[in-house]
Amino acid sequence: MEEYTAALPQESRQPSAHDLEVLSRQLGRPVRDVVEIPARCVCGNPLVAATAPRLSNGTPFPTTFYLTHPVITSAVSRLEAGGLMTRMNDRLTADGELADSYRGAHEAYLQARNEIADRSGTGAVPEIDGISAGGMPTRVKCLHVLVGHSLAAGPGVNPLGDEALEAIAEWWTKDRCYCDGAWDTAGEAPSRDLSRHGPQGLPDIVGRPAPVRKPKSEAVGEQSASNQDGTA
Ligand SMILES: [Zn+2]
Q1: Spacing, Cα 126 to ligand 1 middle (Å)
Q2: H/E element, 148
Q3: Is the model's pTM score more than 0.85?
Q4: Total number of domains in the chain
Q5: What is the pLDDT of residues 117-132, one digit of tens each?
């Protein structure tokens, strides 16, 4: 089985100022409340950002692992456009073993979030107890979320995220750097907050992804579901 750059040692999970700048460039907007970098390119650049389960403005935030690398996000968007989520959902209905294993991924997601909450000092966030992301535990609604989870957790935790990673192998593999030219490195990093999080947060995030207001020109390209949208 492949091994991803997962389970990074604690010191390399800590986001540096440079990491935050790279994330802003990858996403085309400033990032907020990123507390860890759970997966990195072989060159060291972030692949995934971990956001605290409670934003600094108080909003509960269920999407803990956010895929940021533009090469991977576009590749995953291609899978979504090709109908992979529909096929996965059909299999989840028909295959009890897969459904069990996917439920296990949901539980692992919640546990990883609790650990991040402990490390980042946000404490318990009861508003999102039992709520993960991406459609887990019974549906697939955003492959980006599942791939972000697989990269963060390493192989063998999220079966459908692992499958999606294998399915993008013609565009991205963990053993090579695809960063060159993948985002704009000239000029200033985005510093004006164009994301949708207002200072007072969102009215009712529980059980439902927040509404999305995404500029069409976003550097990431298509980010499918609203679940993954609006990290930080
Ligand atoms: Zn790289």
Answers
A1: 37
A2: helix 143-153
A3: no
A4: 1
A5: 999 999 889 999 999 9
